[in-house]
Amino acid sequence: MIIDAVIIIAAYLFGSVSAAIVTCRAMGLPDPRNEGSRNPGATNVLRVGNRTAAGITLLGDFLKGVIPVVLAVLLGLDPVTVALAGLAAFLGHLYPVFFGFQGGKGVATGLGVLLAWSWPALLLTVGTWLLIAALFRYSSLAALVSFLLAPFYLAYLGAPQAILFGMLAVTVITFWRHQGNLQALLNGTEKKIGEKD
């Protein structure tokens, strides 16, 4: 039980390290919380910075989801703890203790968690994201559609119930965090991928 608790807490703290803010500071770029969409994530870093910074941010946020869950799996912890570790890393990105609990929307970190939970489900989810992004050029729409389908992919692949419920939680929270994007999509004011202010 102690190891389980330590892993879950460590996953949250690891997720709380904002790749967007750290990358922008290191590269002398504007704070993504104060520019563009004001979201500290890869899409906004691309908007206020450049592709290199956005790529580093994307990789950093993705690995925040992968590493804690892989560690829980390697330690042989039960599926409930593995699911909670992933959810904790995801919540750390959204509500980082190191940055005033003001984090990103969790797409890259959520995908990292999904990789560690089930790589086949990740491939299906990323494929969905790429298809929607290519067709409509809206990162938020691609994220919402792909995360909506992710639990169905996990269920089809026979994932443990704890992991399935973990992904359902991630999906619900993702939609909650994208309320503004949903409204912008409905209003026709959502910015497309790479579009500057």
Number of helices: 10
* Topology as a string of helices (H) and strands (E): HHHHHHHHHH
Low-confidence sequence ranges: none
Q: Rough shape?
A: globular
Name the structural class.
mainly alpha
List the helices and strands and how they pair.
Elements lengths: L1 H14 L3 H8 L15 H7 L2 H24 L4 H16 L12 H11 L1 H18 L2 H18 L4 H17 L1 H9 L10
Helix pairs in contact: 1-4, 1-5, 2-4, 3-4, 4-5, 4-6, 5-6, 5-9, 6-7, 6-9, 7-8, 8-9
Task: Walk me through what this model shows.
The structure is a single chain. With 197 residues, this protein is an all-alpha fold. It has one domain (2-187). The protein has ten helices and no strands. The relative contact order is 0.13. The mean pLDDT is 93.
Q: Would you summarize the structure shown here?
A:
The chain has 197 residues and is an all-alpha fold. It contains 10 helices and no strands. The chain has one domain (2-187).
